[in-house]
Amino acid sequence: MSDDDPIPVTPDETINETDATVASPADLEEEMAGKLAEARTTIGKELRKVIIGQDEVVEQMLIALLSGGHCLVTGAPGLAKTLLVSTLAKVFELSFSRIQFTPDLMPSDITGTEILEDTAEGKRELVFNPGPIFANLILADEINRTPPKTQAALLEAMQEKQVTVAGHSLQLDKPFFVLATQNPIEMEGTYPLPEAQLDRFMFNIVIDYLSEDEEVAVVSQTTGAGAEEVKPVFSGADLLKCHQVVRRVPIAEEVVRYAVRIAANSRPGQKHTPAYVNEWVNWGAGTRAGQSLVLGAKTRALLDGRSHVTYEDIRTLAAPVLRHRILTNYRAEAEGITVEDVIKKVIELTPEK
User: Fold this and answer.
1) Of 248, 274, 306, which closes a domain?
2) pLDDT tens per residue across span 75-130
3) Helix (H) or strand (E) holding 92
4) Domain check: are 217 and 80 in the same one?
5) 138 and 280 assigned to the same domain
6) Bridge partners, 118 (sequence order)
7) What is the predicted pLDDT for the residue at 30?
8) For residue 328, which of 286, 284, 285, 281 has the smallest C-alpha distance?
9) 7, 288 Cβ separation under 8 angstroms
């Protein structure tokens, strides 16, 4: 599969056969659409028991999970990235695994390995011992601190929903999500993610510092009696159904074209590329950017209680979709132009029709 191939969609990635026999697709869609419309309030209420502030970050993570996409989370240490991910796992009743990426981490430390064990018959045989990748929600902490060989093992898991151990392919649990974190401050001794792996992440979510009032609330809560217990709202089976419902949301061709044009306008050297992109950008967003924009916009519409996608849905999600897919050049750096500046200009100058 090349880097420009569309995101593969398989029926078993969205709904299992048992669910399909219980209810018709129309009944399933109506049931889950209604459940998603209430999801933002219900899930938000549970998350607020532990997480204070970061409303935009929470919304983007919810959209990614309900769309079936992976997230790259960028933020300084101590901003509750790990806490947020583990709390989401509780809300969605998912098995959770945290992997701390280090320079000495090997692929087998993630995928698992075969070990020699004694059998009841007195013989010895190789038995597979599964690694931490065999969970529904994986927190890949400081993913850019591990070598390319280990990053490649995670790449296979993200794209193919499987791992290869001792020549055998093993399917991962479904649903399967990777939320990877990066520390933007300390870049010494790191292994920057290749563009092919960055493109597998649906969103790049930036977590910033809290406001003073929010930080006061966090300090008070974490130094007091403790937060309330978080209760599960959705299940893994519900998420699989959501992925199917999201893909059935109707979207006008004009809105799809708008999403495609936003992605295309970030690519230098093309026929209709804006001059500022040719001047500041080395590499632009590929086809997966348009796919992520449309899927995310459909999910956002459902969470807002709407059955249609608007241009505003596309614009709102443009930054998390594009910020890890656009590579600026030295001229942009010299002029103080950031990726966020390029995205803002692309959105401003891309017409709706």
Assistant:
1) 248
2) 877 777 888 888 889 888 899 999 999 899 998 899 988 888 877 777 788 888 88
3) none
4) yes
5) no
6) 124
7) 60
8) 281
9) yes
- In 76-167, the DSSP E strands lie at 96-100, 112-118, 124-130, 137-141, 162-165
Region 324-344 average pLDDT: 94
At 166, list the tokens: 């001792």
| Interatomic CA distance for residues 171 and 174, integer angstroms | 9
Full-model pTM? 0.84
CA distance 99 to 101: 6
Parent domain of 280:
251-353
Cβ–Cβ under 8 Å, residues 265 and 312: no
- Please list, in sequence order, all residues whose beta carbon lies within 8 angstroms of the beta carbon of residue 225, skipping any fewer than 6 positions away: none
For residue 25, pLDDT beyond 90: no
Specify the pLDDT at position 24.
54
CB 128 within 8 A of CB 138: no
Beta-carbon neighbour count of residue 49 at 10 Å? 16
Amino acid at 99: I
User: What amino acid occupies position 219?
Assistant: V
Domains of the chain: total:
2
CATH for 196 = 3.40.50.300
